[in-house]
Design goal:
This protein has 13 helices and six strands. α8 crosses α12, α9 crosses α11 and α11 runs antiparallel to α12. It has two domains: 230 residues, P-loop containing nucleotide triphosphate hydrolases (Rossmann fold); 59 residues, Histone, subunit A (Orthogonal Bundle). Helices cover 51% and strands 9% of the residues. Strands 3-2-4-1-5-6 form a six-stranded parallel β-sheet, sandwiched between helices. The chain is an alpha/beta fold and 308 residues long.
Length: 308
């Protein structure tokens, strides 16, 4: 298929909104290409948060080695820089063994952190502490409104419930005097890559999201969250920002009904998927293919082969 030795060929990157079928496509292609998969999902790195993050089960992994799954305890606030370091080490190790690499994920910033020459501004403990105190007093929504005034572009891609990322963006703005988005340089590849995006009609995406959320509750999301609550999950930033978990916690705390928790999760996930689509739409390097095409795996494989 290509004259280059396996392990030196471009990385295949598969992106798209949640519930678009990225993981299944990645496994199908990895089986054909003798590749290993690097997950670029910001939530699947947490141990014990599997159902609500749609972490592929062992059966769904189809015998393919996956990296960046179930690494850190939920109480550990993983930074993008820390994720970047571990994911790149995984890519280098896979390529060092002569295997091909597929990076798959819907977390745009994390995909960019892994694949692009992305340097992160420093931190200021005093500024961070002050902003965190304000967030604790005012709440995530108020802090997100402040971010929206200072940096609308960043506010578009950061969930209003994601306190940690909101605080980080505001910290960077205060330290650098520039919008957080402005500190992200134009994308420059660290690894040679073929980037493919899964195209999904909005109405179809909404139906797939609703089906996935119901399936998560049927698969035991309630029990998973109850177990994490017993470990102190509500006190962590992860619990606040993880889609589905905050709603399940509210249900288990008798604040809302089960039906309301499911409905709110579907709504929040739909909004997040639209943010994902907007993020990836800006990247002109991505070549889009139908998410449900019967020949999509073959199209992507040939596209990868043509560009290597």
């Amino acid at each position: 298929m290509t004259s280059q030795p396996a392990g030196t060929e471009p990385v295949l990157v598969i992106v798209g909104p949640t519930a678009s079928g990225k993981s299944a496509l990645a496994v199908s292609l990895a089986q054909r290409l003798d590749a290993e998969i690097i997950s670029a999902d910001s939530m699947q790195v947490y141990i014990g948060m599997n159902i609500g993050t749609a972490t592929p089960t062992l059966a769904e992994r189809g015998g393919i080695t996956h990296h960046m799954l179930d690494i850190w305890d939920p109480a550990h606030p993983v930074s993008v820089a820390e994720f970047q370091q571990h994911a790149r080490a995984a890519i280098d190790a896979v390529r060092g063994r002569g295997k091909r690499v597929i990076v798959v994920g819907g977390s745009g910033l994390y995909v960019s952190a892994v694949m692009d020459d992305l340097q992160f501004p420093g931190t200021d403990p005093q500024v961070r502490a002050r902003l965190e105190a304000q967030a604790g007093a005012l709440g995530a929504e108020a802090m997100h409104a402040r971010l929206r005034e200072l940096d609308p572009s960043s506010a578009h891609v950061i969930l209003p419930s994601n306190t940690r990322r909101i605080v980080r963006a505001l910290e960077v703005i205060e330290i650098t005097g520039k919008p957080f988005a402005a500190t992200l340089p134009p994308p420059t590849d660290v690894y040679s890559a073929v980037r493919v995006g899964l195209q999904v009609d909005r109405a179809v995406m909404d139906r797939r999201i609703a089906h996935r959320v119901h399936a998560m509750w049927d698969a035991g999301l309630e029990a998973e969250v109850a177990s994490l609550m017993a470990q102190g999950l509500p006190a962590t930033h992860t619990a606040i920002k993880a889609l589905g978990y905050a709603q399940a916690i509210a249900y288990l705390s008798d604040h809302i009904s089960r039906e309301q928790a499911i409905a709110e999760t579907i709504t929040a996930t739909g909004k997040f998927a639209r943010r994902q689509q907007r993020w990836f739409a800006r990247d002109t390097r991505i070549q889009w293919v139908p998410h449900d095409g019967s020949d999509t795996p073959d199209v992507v494989r040939e596209l990868w082969a043509t560009l290597t």
